[in-house]
Amino acid sequence: MTDDRETTHGGSGGGPAGLTEQERALLAVERRSWPGPGAKERAVREGLGLSPTRYYQLLNALLDDPRALAHDPVTVNRLRRIREERQRRR
């Protein structure tokens, strides 16, 4: 089975070497500082048209994508550290 995310999301910058517009938007949300969880969830729903659950599913998968690391290494590495810490606590 092939991974066809690049062709199904469209947008500029998509393709085998770059992230789709949606993937870049997911990382942009994580780059921002939020006053509280409610504001972030509202931005995800209104700005991206995703439920918070779907947003975090897509974000988690994106953290394992080498293209995401190349695009925004600071954000991806920070989120990976947070994820690994939470996994260690379980």
Give a topology summary.
Blueprint: H1 5-9, H2 21-31, H3 37-48, H4 52-63, H5 66-71, H6 73-89
Helix pairs in contact: 2-3
Amino-to-carboxy terminus distance: 32 Å
Strand content: under 5%
Reported for the largest beta sheet, the result is:
none
Q: What kind of oligomer do you see?
A: single chain
Poorly predicted residue ranges: 1-13
Query: Based on CA inertia axes, which overall geometry fits?
Result: globular
**Order of H and E elements:** HHHHHH
Q: What is the count of DSSP helices, taking H or I runs of 4+ residues?
A: 6
Kindly state the number of beta strands: 0
Radius of gyration: 13 Å
As a percent range, the share of helical residues equals: over 70%
What's the rounded overall pLDDT mean?
85
Structural class, by secondary structure, is mainly alpha
Task: Tell me what you see in this structure.
- The chain has about 90 residues and is mostly helical.
- Helices cover about 70% and strands about 0% of the residues.
- The protein has 6 helices and no strands.
